[in-house]
Amino acid sequence: MTEHQREFSPANEYDVRRLPFAKRLEDLLPGDCIWPINSGGPYLFCAAKAVGKYCPHHKTRLIHKRGSGHATNEPQTR
């Protein structure tokens, strides 16, 4: 995989729960999570309150993905 290719992270239970609140790209506002939560158009994004580009849940998934070479589908617990 080149630096410009990205492995798709399949949706998990958290992403399914976010669907009613998801936004299309053109509807995202500053401070919305930009994690894509579906794999086909129209593409929808999490839109939960973000810390940087991602909400805490998706930031954790990204860190796990980068650290292990693949995405985790385990929901973040708090």
- Could you say which overall geometry the principal axes of the C-alpha atoms support? globular
* Computed structural class: mainly alpha
Low-confidence stretches: 71-78
Q: Figure out the total of helices.
A: 2
Helix content: 10-25%
Provide the β-strand percentage band.
5-15%
Quaternary structure of the protein: single chain
> What is the typical, i.e. mean, pLDDT?
82
Sketch the topology as an H/E string, one letter per element: HEEH
Domains, number = 1
Strand order of the largest sheet: 1-2
Please give the radius of gyration in angstroms: 12 Å
Distance between the termini: 33 Å
Main beta-sheet annotation: 2 strands, antiparallel
Q: How many DSSP-defined strands? A: 2
Organism: Rhizobium fredii (Sinorhizobium fredii)
Keywords: Plasmid
Protein name: GcrA cell cycle regulator
Comma- or semicolon-separated keywords:
single chain, 78 residues, mainly alpha, 24% helix, globular, plasmid, GcrA cell cycle regulator
Overview of the molecule:
It is built from two helices and two strands, in the order αββα. It has a two-stranded antiparallel sheet. By secondary structure, the protein is mainly alpha-helical. The protein is globular, with a radius of gyration of 12 Å. It has one domain.
Helix and strand layout, with pairings?
Blueprint: H1 13-18, E1 23-24, E2 44-45, H2 56-68
Antiparallel strand pairs: 1-2
Organism: Rhizobium fredii
Protein name: GcrA cell cycle regulator
Keywords: Plasmid
